[in-house]
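2024-03-11 09:14:02 DEBUG pipeline.ingest accepted 1 chain
2024-03-11 09:14:02 DEBUG pipeline.ingest length=240
2024-03-11 09:14:03 DEBUG pipeline.predict start
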Amino acid sequence: MTLLLENVSYIFPKEKTPVISELSFTVQQGEFVSLIGKSGTGKSTILKLITGLLNPTGGKITIDKQPISLGEVGYMPQKDLLLPWRTIIDNIMIGTEIQKDLKLSKEDARSWIKKVGLKDYEQAYPHQLSGGMRQRVAFLRAMLTGKELLLLDEPFGALDSITKKEMQAWLLSIWQELDKTIVFITHDLEEACYLSDRIILLKEDKTLEEITVPFPRPRHQEIVHSQPLVELRKELEKKI
């Protein structure tokens, strides 16, 4: 799977200035790519364009050289959007109701619920879960749509620092096991350095800069205190 954005622009209705202009980048199968940049540089807009929720006003977006279509990728917005009247397992199974060809049994869902440490909460409702637990469920729901490409829009932004660290390690372990492709938005530069293969910095002048993260995998939480990662984060701070 190869995601390609070629000279993509987008202007919101009634606006004169594009939020993104002639943007081009590629994401390869199995990569973890983070988008960073100041507010207003178009990060969330890019994800909505990739999902097909928005249509570009210029350029094109393709997966394996075919135009992107709505429902082709897994998307997890900033809020978990779990349905409050459905249990955890029923929230995860909702994909089978939308995608009739999705082969996901309740036994499969239960297996994953157990893997992410929520075995005792299968019949719980979202309001009975902590923020970190809800994010695990939302990520499982996106992951179990069967899509190769997952778009995550600042999924850990509202979590406390301890829970965020737990979720980062958990996300890396799941991603490495399943060989999914992830495009991830974050404002946390340390998080971007820790998780990513590449970082795409969106600048206020509508250009971008790609930074390769040089740290080998698998990665462990201790790396965030290492001098090379601290230096990379400082470098990113200067660039933004």
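2024-03-11 09:14:41 DEBUG pipeline.report The radius of gyration is 18 Å.
2024-03-11 09:14:41 DEBUG pipeline.predict end
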